[in-house]
Amino acid sequence: GSCAPLPSLTLLCLPAFCSSLFTNSLPPTLQVPRVHPLVLRAATNEPPAAAATSLPLLLRPEPALAVGASLLLLLVGNRLLTDTLLNSQSRADLIATIAPVLIVLKALGDIDITPREAEPVVLDGVDCAWVEPSLPNATRRELEWAADSLTVNSEACAAIAFWSEGRTLLLRGALASAAADAAPAAALVPGPLLNKCMERSSGAPDYLPALQLLPGRVEFDYFPPTTQGVLMVPLAGTRRGALVLACDRQRGFNSDDIAWARAVTARLGELDM
To answer: What are the recorded Gene Ontology BP terms (predicted)?
Structure first.
């Protein structure tokens, strides 16, 4: 008899079915594994900002925070505009709140929050560059080198004073008018904070990053009254002394500045004074 024509879908699938049947009927040693085509991608060096923008919307901190806050506002608005509150609706609202809360928490954990750098303040004082004249020439050169290196390596450093064994040995930068008019050797008078710092023989510094908020700022009256921060680095060992640095902005000294000030102070402690 006549054979009915096969549907087109059957014609399309029949070769693949026969091939699969033939391949599966072979012994395992004769079966040819299927080879998938390789997909080659060019290597790209995307910056972190470009990589962040390629993330899905809810994985970026700022859009995720906006989406989560919007969902929470919609839930609160729906709750307030509903006339009759049923127990089932309360349970649904509670369950629906979980997702936007998690989105907001995830966004807050991923967002990069950096404190804004404080603006420098003009220190109203008298510029001074003085070294104790009775010191040996080599010691004077070392003190001048220390002052130059501290002011060059730290942009916020506006004034420097070095006190050792009952007298001031170095003054550099902006000083208060009263201190500049007085005898330089007696300009720095250690107060309670500086004396407490010098009691430590380890050389660990004391840092006051926001001097204007502390009542103890009156102790540093040899610096201009608008001084924003003070770093005190004592001499290590048995010698009594300290290097005092003033900055023209809050939180002006970073960890590198403090480490360098400690290294300079350790070198000054080895000088013949």
So the answer is: cytochrome b6f complex assembly
**How far is 185 from 187, CA to CA, in rounded Å?**
6
Q: Which residues contact 20 (CB under 8 A, 6 or more apart)?
A: none
State which amino acid sits at residue 19. S
Hey, what amino acid is at 118? A
pTM higher than 0.85: no
CA-CA distance, 72 to 103, in Å (whole number)? 10
Closest CA to 248 of 121, 128, 125, 118: 121
- The total number of residues shown for the chain amounts to 273
113-138 confidence digits (pLDDT tens): 666 777 888 888 889 999 999 999 99
Distances from the Cα of 181 to the Cα of 71, 146, 176, 220, angstroms: 66, 24, 9, 16
User: C-alpha dihedral over 148, 141, 239, 132, to 10 degrees?
Assistant: -90
Q: Would you list the DSSP string of 16-57?
A: HHHHHHHHHHS-TTTPPPP-PPP---------HHHHHHTS-G
Helices (H) and strands (E) in the chain — how many of each? 8, 6
